[in-house]
Amino acid sequence: MKSVLITFDQAYYERIIALLDRMNCRGFTLIDKVQGRGSKTGDPHFGSHAWPSMNSAIITIVDDARVDPLLDALHEMDQKTEQLGLRAFVWNIEKTI
Description:
Layout: E1 2-9, H1 13-22, E2 29-34, E3 55-62, H2 64-80, E4 86-92
Antiparallel strand pairs: 1-3, 1-4, 2-3
């Protein structure tokens, strides 16, 4: 099992939920308002007057076999609209209850 953290501009929300549904990644946790800035070229997402957009984040736990197809689909989505900002990070899950 792997944990996938997806951080994204809120404009991606519906597309990412639809993607998770298509890939049978049923369970997730949404963190609605996340502030941040990309490490390379991303604009800040601070929810302020100067930087009004906001990010969200989703954490989902998926089978190992679903990780690469999910990351590939997210990468394709990001490449189509790079200015919005979308990143995904993967960690091993050692135990669950």
